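so my prof wants the structure for this chain in the tokens format not the other one, which i didnt know existed until like an hour ago. anyway here's the sequence
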Amino acid sequence: MYVYKNFNLRGVLSFSGGHIVYITVWATIVASLYAFTKWEWFVIPWLPLSVIGTAVAFYVGFKNNSAYDRLWEARKIWGAIVNGSRSWGTNVKGYVGNQFLDDEKSENELHENYKRLIYRHIAWLYTLRGQLLVPTSWEHVSLSGHVGKMNKKRMESWGKTMFDDQFVGKELQEFLTNQELDFLSKKKNLATQIIDLQSQDLKKLRAENLIDDFRHMELQKLLNDFYTFQGQAERI
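here's what i got, hopefully its the right format
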């Protein structure tokens, strides 16, 4: 779906993937043959054209509404992820502490817990983004020949997709430990596994009394929300 305000020639050519070029050439050839030849079989009655035009108008309208619904739903899901991420960072710093410990942890030790939980969440965001950008089987990049290559090149230039399973990129290496990266390299749905790592970490923090039962359940509820948001994003 085209969501920008204005059209220009370059944007139309880029958005259409060059299809408009050969369609224009084909239409010009047909119109020229009709105008400069006496081939009567080129003539098409207006009634079928009007019927087909009406059907196409309904189809385009339906597709446009469907595309807008998907865009709006995606915006709502992304907004929920943003708000949930803010809540996660705030609750981690507000809940994990020395309130329930006799032998208090140092500020550096607490900071390491905050950093680990928040950095792992950032890794989840990058991983989810990467998984959502992997092309599906019904997209144009799956086509063979020149058309598939051109669509793949166009999507790469826009940065709208990922064609290689490069989960061990610079981003994840900055936010996850080597042990976690090795663990994830053996898994398929990496975003799901990262949330599971978060859950296991919360379990350890509860065992160490760095959080109580209530705080543990509240943080785990946020992780369950992230599962929900991930499923919603994967659905569309």
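also thought this was worth mentioning. Residues 73-235 form one domain.
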